[in-house]
Design goal:
The complex is a heterodimer of chains A (416) and B (143). Chain A is built from 16 helices and twelve strands. With 416 residues, chain A is α/β, with parallel strands linked by helices. The model of chain A has no long low-confidence stretch (mean pLDDT 93). In chain B, 40% of the residues are buried. In chain B, a hairpin with a 5-residue loop joins β1 and β2. The longest helix of chain B has 8 residues. Chain B is globular. Chain B has 143 residues and is mainly β. Chain B starts with 21 loop residues before the first helix and ends with a strand. The interface between A and B is large, with 44 and 46 residues.
Chain lengths: 416, 143
């Protein structure tokens, strides 16, 4: 007997900014929270003195205790509040923490929010740990997550770390550059109709386009990498108990299960770890373990999932994710993409319906908040772009840090 | 580049060094590659730590390795976004597996990117890095 659902998401909200009309992250988060509370059929007084979780503080606003900055902005005066980090993947952990808090009875409601704003990067240099880095986001983002002493001096950049992982995938699992390109092509197809997609307006691309795009860090090319954008995005949702959800005038989405697994903060210690994943292994990741935990909690399997919202900073992650999340056998991820299983037309699962980070982009560190909101839109039949048909269950997978260091998963459903 | 790290000793290498790895950088300046091995659990520990990463014992010893290994994976970087490397593109970063067992991140130098693949035999060489002081272990094709 499954113990699902764990909790209910009774409202969500979003907010966007453009490069030519910037808004700071805190404004985007506040607007998203206001919309989420209203969507839940609640008043601001209902969520005052309750729970407030925020995802990792934005790259464009590095104030510590950002959760309390947001609480102040909206006068939420929370009784249960923290910033949730598993790198950016902490966004999906918010679902786990909020579900536990309402099940425990600590609070009735938990507001969860996150935002970032690519157009506002460098706006607060005085509170950034290294202001010169934060005004050059490309370098900041490109060198994030590397070991400061044993990796950074060698000039390793994030696409190169993912590139070295991609090369191991090709070597061990038989994935190909064409399959990595195909993943970019499919994410572009999904995202073309999403109104806030950074690359959507550029139209469809072909495998040849990807394979002929400039080399960034071999074997990763420009069109294998996610863009920076939109100018800003914020998302928020309200979690409460299943019982509370029934008494609200809301359209709830239920939390069926969640799971997480973190390995190592940097690649060097991970490569040297003598146990799981064993020494030198970069193709078995924490995502498989996180997925098993989430599916076990929900008493469901990959075959029950209609829509997957995830992120792939580089498109070689797509086949690896499809394998480790259980949608196909290890080593078949490339074939799964090639055979059209994640295509918008005729695919077997809806995948990154807003185009994911590869097309929608990332406005900073809020990409997984964006993915959660997109999953909620799909489950409620309220997509801004392509709406998948007959969606009942969705899976959000987030990964943060170098080469899948932190992995978080939530399984959501629009029916009990 | 200004360095205001309390632990930093000019010329020691490891421009952002932690005290845990001090011995490693001192040896590198003498062109020796040393890694830690735990007397308690016999595992190699890298990067250097003060406490064994695996059995948590205070039993880490330093052992010198030959500096010979193989390319585990690599990537040649063609974009100019790293402030310390921008004028050197293309350059190659790699994971190297030492014959003794440990893995490390490094650069592959003195060769064309097309000369290397997974499994290529390499050996350590000590050289300077852009915007850093001192010598760092890097790798080149083994003769």
């Amino acid at each position: 007997m499954a113990n699902r659902p764990q909790a209910a998401i009774v409202g969500y909200g979003d907010a966007f900014a453009d490069f030519d009309d910037p808004k700071p992250p805190i404004t985007l988060a506040a607007r998203a929270v206001r919309e989420a509370v209203e969507d839940a059929g609640l008043d601001r007084s209902d969520v005052r003195g309750q729970g407030l979780l925020t995802a990792r503080r934005p790259a464009a606003d590095h104030r510590p205790q950002w959760n309390n900055a947001l609480a102040s902005y909206l006068n939420l005066a929370p009784t249960y509040s923290t910033e949730v980090t598993m790198h950016s993947a902490g966004a999906v952990s918010m679902i786990e923490h909020a579900s536990m808090a309402v099940r425990e009875g600590a609070v009735e409601y938990v507001v969860c929010a996150g935002a970032d704003a690519a157009a506002s990067l460098g706006a607060y240099p005085h509170i950034a740990p290294s202001s010169d880095k934060y005004t050059n986001y490309t370098e900041f983002a490109g060198t994030m997550d590397v070991h400061p002493e044993f990796e950074y001096p060698y000039g390793i950049i994030m696409p190169a770390a993912f590139g070295m992982g991609a090369r191991r995938q090709m070597h061990e699992l038989g994935h190909t550059a064409e399959e990595f390109a195909m993943a970019s092509v499919v994410c572009r197809e999904w995202g073309i109709e999403f109104p806030h997609a950074t690359l959507g307006h550029k139209g469809p691309i072909t495998v040849e386009d990807v394979l002929e795009s400039p080399m960034i860090a071999s074997p990763i090319r420009l069109l294998n990498v996610m863009p920076l954008g939109p100018g800003g995005s914020g998302g928020a949702f309200v979690v409460t108990s299943v019982e509370n959800a029934e008494s609200l005038d809301a359209d709830p989405v239920y939390v069926d299960g969640y799971g997480a697994r973190a390995t190592h903060e940097h690649v060097t210690p991970r490569l040297n770890c003598p146990y799981w994943p064993e020494r030198g292994n970069l193709t078995d990741t924490g995502m498989a373990d996180a997925a098993e935990r989430a599916f076990a909690m929900a008493d469901l399997g990959p075959a029950d999932i209609d829509v997957v919202e995830t992120d792939a900073g580089t498109s070689n992650a797509v086949p690896l994710m499809l394998e480790d999340l259980g949608f196909c056998e290890k080593g078949d991820g490339g074939k799964f993409v090639r055979e059209g299983h994640i295509d918008p037309d005729g695919g077997s699962i809806a995948f990154n319906t807003d185009g994911g980070a590869l097309t929608a982009g990332q406005s900073g560190v809020t990409l997984y908040v964006d993915r959660i909101i997109e999953c909620l839109r799909q489950l409620r039949g309220e997509a801004l772009g392509k709406q998948a048909d007959g969606v009942e269950r969705g899976l959000v997978y987030a990964t943060g840090g170098p080469l899948y260091a932190c992995n978080t998963i939530a399984i959501l459903s629009n029916t009990r | 580049m200004t360095k205001n790290n309390t632990y930093y000793d000019k010329g020691l290498g490891g421009g952002r060094n932690t005290l845990d790895a001090r011995r490693f950088w001192e040896a590198a300046q003498e062109e020796r590659l040393i890694v830690q091995r735990c007397d308690e659990c016999d595992e190699y520990v890298f990067p250097p730590q003060d406490v064994c990463a695996y059995c948590w014992a205070d039993a880490l010893d330093w052992v010198e390795v030959d500096g010979e290994g193989r390319i585990h994976s690599f990537s040649t970087i063609h974009v100019d976004i790293h402030s310390t490397w921008g004028d050197r593109v293309p350059y190659t970063v790699a994971f190297v597996e030492l014959d003794e067992g440990p893995f490390l991140v490094t650069n592959v130098v003195d060769c064309e990117p097309d000369d290397i693949e997974i499994g290529t035999a390499v050996e350590v060489t000590f050289g300077e890095l852009p915007a850093e002081d001192g010598l760092f272990p890097q790798f080149r094709l083994r003769e």
